Prior knowledge:
36% of the residues lie in helices and 25% in strands. The protein is α/β, with parallel strands linked by helices.
Amino acid sequence: MAANSRTLADVQGTVLSLHKISAIKETISFYDTWSELYEQDVKLLDYRAPLLASMSLADVMLEDRDQALVLDVACGTGLVAMQLQKLGFCNFHGVDGSERMLQLAESKSVYQTLQKCILHAGSLPLSSDTYDAVLIVGALSEGQVPYTIIRELHRVTKLGGFVCMTTRMNVSNHLYKTQLQAVIEEMEQKGLWVKVKVQEIKHWEKASSVHETKQDSTYIPGIIFIYQKSKDHE
Ligand SMILES: C[S@@+](CC[C@H](N)C(=O)[O-])C[C@H]1O[C@@H](n2cnc3c(N)ncnc32)[C@H](O)[C@@H]1O
């Protein structure tokens, strides 16, 4: 991953290798290695998830954005906070498992706190009922953050606060997306949160291989879920 002038084919190769990893430790070390090229690579992929998720959240948080405390889970190099800042949000905490991605996020000077933490079910080292908005963008998929983390996202959100989650809808992520959606809906049925918006996006990012695309599109679809916390516990 050392070359400076990367092509789309190089990036597709990198993403394919990432998708083959199933152990979280390996995923984190992959991101450590990828960190320096991450932003230029995702630009080539036309990865728009940080922009789309931020706009979607801003659409439902119309007031007092500058007062809102936002948690960016799996914040990576900070692309989500950079987008949210343009929309009037000012207060960000970030967590991620990759030291090198966190260093790049730190260099943006947008986060008040950044914390290294490996995310698995029941693992968010943060206080309950703290955040006005919690986002997890580009990290809910097989081999990355287990979907069971969403109970933790709910726990650290204030009553009335918003949780914004994204996942890919390509063939290889189908099972994960189905399981994630089942837990989201089960929590909805228990009255823990209410659905605010579910938005399917056709052009989420360029596909990493032809097997991932539908018909003639070179893009894969993605989905944004926004829920509002309505109850603390079951
Ligand atoms: C595709 S990047 C997304 C980063 C950022 N949210 C964005 O949209 O640009 C995925 C991030 O999730 C982090 N990550 C993946 N699995 C993780 C895990 N189990 N625990 C902690 N961080 C994880 C990686 O280190 C990486 O920074």
